[in-house]
Write a sequence for this structure.
């Protein structure tokens, strides 16, 4: 039927050796398999364990910088919501502009090497911003420029990072690995914001303190570079080879997604949620400072409370046997309602207690959408499909963040949550209605062209 995901045989790894040639080595779990809970079964894979360990270290640093950078902006601008929105928009603008080409890089080049390069690229702006802040010479335009540079590196990194998981683990473990990736990210989120807030306060709460925290993030990028180098390449599945080149390959990725109404629905859902609902860093900073009159420690704790729920949501997702469209849609609606409720809460305590709920609903949505895209996409086009997913989810931030920043300055911080949650719910409902209409129209199946190998 048009619009349905391909049948399971279509999801087998492609791009293997020619008939009659031996299969490439596959990831072997080893003796850990029998000792691990189903929630953590992907960690039985030695390559995935190394990869996840490096990711945790880097993610802690990333969350520390997010808090420190936001606090630096507030110090440099006198609590400007617009400046926070502009910085967030600049950091995610490259996802919108470079998305399809970044996906092609992920599909055509060795993903392990791409990830090593992008981690070095992300360390450079962190190092420069940290040094500027520590020396007391940082200005707001420095933050804007370096946020854009970081965004370019992140846009190149993300499609390769998401698609690389399928080369490390067996196909039946992919949904689990996607959930554990989110759990790793949010375990770091549980530690990073609170640690950053404590360190900034302990070091004086000024510009220099934020610079020291940002420098710690620059150092943290060493971990993924080293762990990627140590991976056993003989255990990595050989990726499919892309036959199309240049713009034709980019168009092929777009055409593949365009002919799949289920993938289009996922993209629409994450667009509304990512553009209007998932601006926690900006909205929590405004709620902490403007509405509740709190300092960096309390602001950092809000991030940790969010992470408690996010970690729980991602661990629950890791236990799922599969990700469904129903889960994606329902979790998006529940998330939008939760964001709206958070905007109406009267005290810092009630807002903080709501943060875990926001975390659970947000990560259920993100992990389900991410997992659905990866598991239900042909291996030869997975990097480009994930680039479109990231372009829609994160690329919407340059549109939503400045708009919500303006709303925060014009109407107050609460309205960034009230309107963001309401628009998310209405957008998801509209997307489901549009897909219902599209399913009534026949759509021809489109499969990517995979390059043939010479035996």
């Amino acid at each position: 039927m048009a619009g349905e995901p391909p049948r399971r045989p279509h999801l087998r790894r492609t791009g293997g050796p020619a008939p009659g040639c031996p299969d490439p080595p596959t990831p072997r779990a080893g003796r850990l398999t029998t000792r691990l809970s189903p929630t953590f079964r992907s960690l039985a894979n030695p390559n995935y364990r190394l990869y996840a360990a490096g990711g945790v270290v880097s993610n802690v640093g990333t969350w520390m910088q997010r808090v420190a950078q936001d606090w630096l902006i507030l110090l440099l601008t006198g609590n400007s919501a617009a400046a926070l929105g502009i910085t967030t928009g600049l950091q995610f603008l490259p996802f919108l502009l470079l998305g399809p080409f970044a996906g092609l890089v992920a599909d055509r080049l060795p993903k392990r090497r791409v990830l090593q390069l992008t981690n070095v690229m992300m360390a450079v702006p962190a190092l420069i911003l940290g040094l500027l802040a520590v020396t007391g010479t940082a200005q707001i335009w420095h933050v804007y420029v370096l946020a854009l540079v970081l965004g370019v590196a992140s846009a190149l990194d993300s499609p390769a990072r998401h698609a690389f998981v399928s080369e490390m683990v067996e196909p039946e473990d992919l949904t689990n690995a996607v959930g554990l990736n989110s759990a790793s990210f949010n375990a770091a989120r549980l530690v990073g914001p609170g640690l950053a807030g404590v360190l900034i306060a302990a070091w004086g709460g000024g510009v220099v303190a934020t610079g020291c925290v940002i420098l710690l993030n620059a150092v943290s990028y060493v971990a993924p570079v080293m762990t990627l180098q140590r991976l056993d390449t003989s255990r990595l599945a050989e990726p499919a080879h892309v036959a199309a080149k240049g713009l034709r390959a980019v168009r092929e990725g777009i055409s593949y997604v365009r002919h799949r109404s289920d993938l289009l629905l996922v993209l629409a859902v994450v667009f509304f949620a990512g553009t209007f609902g998932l601006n926690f860093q900006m909205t929590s900073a405004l709620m902490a400072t403007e509405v509740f009159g709190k300092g960096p420690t309390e602001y950092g704790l809000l991030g940790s409370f969010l992470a408690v729920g996010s970690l729980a949501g991602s661990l629950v997702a890791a236990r799922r046997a599969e990700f469904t469209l129903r889960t994606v849609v329902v979790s998006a609606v529940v998330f939008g309602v939760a964001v709206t409720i958070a905007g109406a809460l009267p005290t810092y305590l009630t807002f903080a207690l709501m943060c875990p709920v926001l975390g659970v609903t947000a990560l259920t949505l993100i992990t389900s959408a991410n997992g659905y895209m990866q598991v239900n996409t042909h291996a030869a086009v997975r990097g480009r499909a994930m680039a479109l997913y990231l372009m829609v989810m994160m690329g919407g931030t340059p549109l939503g963040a400045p708009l919500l920043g303006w709303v925060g300055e014009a109407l107050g911080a609460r309205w960034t949550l009230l309107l963001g949650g309401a628009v998310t719910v209405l957008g998801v409902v509209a997307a489901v209605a549009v897909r219902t209409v599209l399913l009534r129209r026949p759509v021809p199946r489109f499969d990517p062209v995979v390059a043939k190998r010479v035996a």
Q: What stands out?
A: Residues 116 and 225 are 5 Å apart (CA to CA).
